[in-house]
Amino acid sequence: MFGDPLFIIVALACLGVALILVLGISTFGKEGRDNAMRSNKLMRWRIIAQFVAVLLILLFVYIRGQGGQ
Known about the structure:
With 69 residues, the chain is mainly α. It has helices at 5-28, 33-67. The two termini are 18 Å apart.
């Protein structure tokens, strides 16, 4: 499974979501309008990245499910 290119893409997408989440949360506690705007922008990017990651997971499950029949 770890040699599967689609699995590696899915794993990288999930790691990207986690990284964006950590960066967004880290700016929540900082004061200032710029930090608030940056945090909101990161959270928007997280939602987009999370959507893409979920689509990739569904694609992976669909393709791997087809191989078993």
